[in-house]
Write a structure and sequence with these properties.
Layout lengths: L1 H7 L23 H9 L1 E3 L6 E3 H12 L3 H8 L15 E3 L15 E3 L5 H15 L5 H8 L3 H4 L11
Antiparallel strand pairs: 1-2, 3-4
Amino acid sequence: MKAMKDKECTCEGRVFPEPPCDVFRSRGAVSTASIEAAWKCQVENRRTGERINISKTYQREFLKNNPGITERFVAANPKEEPPKRTDGFKKVNHLTPKTAGGCPTGAGNLQPHDLLCRVCKKIDDQFTDWQAGTPDKWHQHFRESGASRTRLSGRTPSSWKRN
């Protein structure tokens, strides 16, 4: 998967956890429900006093800290649906999954799914399948990703190659 990311990616997105957010805890160590509750809560805007959903706050902060990322994504991925510009991203991925105790609101563990190219979305889909206990879907996702097996042949197990 890292070879796919290195060779086929057309975005600036992240799909692999990085330190210090790459700690996976055993099931039950952190409640998935508590993580989801933290993501859904609202914070108060100090300037206006308005209550704002954390997902909208995250989008605003992400775009402020990554100027021009939406424009670069759209230019490099013209066939992808462009990300929403307001009201929060459609989906935000946890690089360390919630079921493994991934931080619910820390920017180091979050990646807007809207800003992933099709190859990175396929990698994320594979992690989701593994998390759900269906790793056998790798072949299907890989083929659908359009990633070139030839360019990856030196780093890809022979069982993944078409005969």
